[in-house]
Specification:
Keywords: Coiled coil, Signal. This is Transporter. It is a single chain. This protein is of the alpha+beta class. The chain has two domains: about 80 residues; about 325 residues, Porin. Helices cover about 25% and strands about 45% of the residues. It has a twelve-stranded antiparallel beta barrel. Helix 1 runs parallel beside helix 3. The longest helix has about 70 residues. The relative contact order is 0.10.
């Protein structure tokens, strides 16, 4: 019995350390499992965040490339299979692992797409004003513009005696004109390279004529006001994209079109006689109503270029306008006579250049210079010879300041102030446009 008790005590002494060791090992394993599980969850959250960041960076690269090239991406690029599978299998990250929106990248694919569209919006607005947008099926544009024109001219009728004394009549002529124009334009994108445009203007004009020397007295001033309104000359043009923007090469667009004489021509209008001299010679006469068109057919061809140089957008254009001769029943401004004949307006050349800066995804500012050079017009009475009209040539230079604001994804508000730099240009002009893209 003693021997049996002694054996039991020895067995218990041997087994007890093993049990204690097993119990201690089990506790350590549980702690290791918990630590490894925590590390695994942390790595999963970090991996999910890195996968999301990879997707966002890829979208940002595509957005920048679209802005630089000026092209619209048709669809988001397909991520690699490994990234796509990881994106599907990624667990929802904890709130602390979610990237804040202020860190410079989107948190979803929809936000990345919106960022891409915002990045190219300023470029599209500049292209729309300079040439055309080829990725829009239909654009309807309503615009209102106002122009102020004031020109004074000193007329001397006499001779200079003793190199110091002028003998005769001194008359000052002043013409003040205000023109308001509403223009409706429709622009249809036929394909990615061709766009057709139709412009239909409606004009309202008021002109005040002032003439000094009324009644033979230098102090006398006569004044008369005339008005006129109606549809202007309708234009039909086409834009064809020759080259897309790539590297150093700008996007280049060829423009061609015709202008029909649908407005009221300035020839053959009835004139009102304000004053005659003692010999019944007309001293002061004005047209009874104002014209709304130039009266002849015209054709134009031009080139425009747009180049992005982030954050600036450079643009320029050059063109030529050809006027065709046309016959009229009366060319004489004298209301007492009728002299039929032909008119041939001088050809014109125009050019311009400017730069636009994007303040943000909605607002941009542009500054540009434009100039139009017109040759002298010629007239020919029936059975006569062509005679150039003195003073009919013109050089109209204008400095333009514009602000563009994107109201919505489809509508844009454009304002433009033009300041005349030469006597032949309007003193100033102000225009507002609202293109709506369908």
């Amino acid at each position: 019995m003693n021997r049996l008790a002694m054996a039991a005590l020895v067995s218990l002494a041997v087994v007890s350390p093993k049990v204690a060791a097993q119990q201690t090992g089990t506790g350590n394993d549980e702690e290791d499992v918990r630590a490894l599980a925590a590390q695994l969850e942390s790595l999963k959250a970090s991996y999910a965040q890195e996968v999301r960041r990879l997707r966002e960076l890829d979208m940002q690269v595509q957005a920048i490339q679209a802005r630089v090239s000026g092209k619209t991406a048709q669809a988001l690029p397909t991520p690699p299979p490994a990234v796509a599978q990881a994106a599907q299998d990624e667990p929802a990250p904890p709130a602390a692992a979610t990237a804040p929106t202020g860190e410079g990248y989107a948190s979803t694919a929809a936000e990345a797409q919106q960022a891409k569209e915002a990045a190219r919006r300023s470029v599209d607005d500049v292209k729309q004003q300079q040439s055309a947008l080829f990725n829009r099926r239909l654009t309807l544009e309503n615009s209102i513009s106002y122009a102020r024109y004031d020109r004074k001219q000193l007329t001397l009728n006499g001779f200079l005696a003793l190199d110091a004394i002028f003998l005769g009549n001194i008359a000052i002529e002043n013409v003040e004109s205000d023109t308001a124009t509403y223009n409706f334009a429709a622009r249809w994108g036929v394909n990615p390279r061709l766009t057709l445009n139709l412009d239909v203007p409606y004009l309202a004009r008021k002109t005040v004529y002032q003439k000094g020397g009324a009644g033979g007295s230098a102090a006398g001033i006569a004044q008369e006001e005339t008005n006129g309104n109606g549809i202007g000359d309708v234009s039909f043009t086409a834009n064809y994209k020759l080259f897309g923007e790539r590297g150093w090469r700008p996007e280049t667009v060829l423009t061609g079109g015709v202008t029909a004489p649908t407005g009221r021509e300035p020839y053959g209008l009835d004139w009102k006689v304000i004053e005659r001299d003692d010999d019944d010679f007309i001293r002061f006469a004005v047209p009874s109503r104002q014209p709304t068109g130039n009266g002849v057919w015209q054709a134009n061809i031009g080139l425009s270029a747009v180049k992005t140089a982030d954050p600036a957008i450079l643009f320029a254009n050059i063109g030529y306008i050809r006027s065709f001769k046309r016959s009229f029943d009366d060319l004489d401004s004298n209301p007492d006579t009728i002299n039929p004949g032909e008119v041939r307006l001088g050809d014109s050349y125009y050019f311009g250049a400017g730069v636009a800066f994007a303040f943000n995804e909605r607002t941009s500012l542009s500054i540009s210079f434009s100039d139009k050079l017109s040759a002298r017009a010629s007239t020919r009475y029936k059975n006569g010879q062509w005679v150039k009209v003195i003073g009919s040539d013109a050089n109209a230079g204008t400095l333009n300041l514009g602000v563009t604001y994107a109201l919505t994804n489809k509508a844009t508000f454009v304002s433009m102030l033009g300041v005349g730099l030469t006597p032949d240009a309007p003193d100033f002009s102000l225009s507002f446009k609202l293109p709506y893209m369908l």
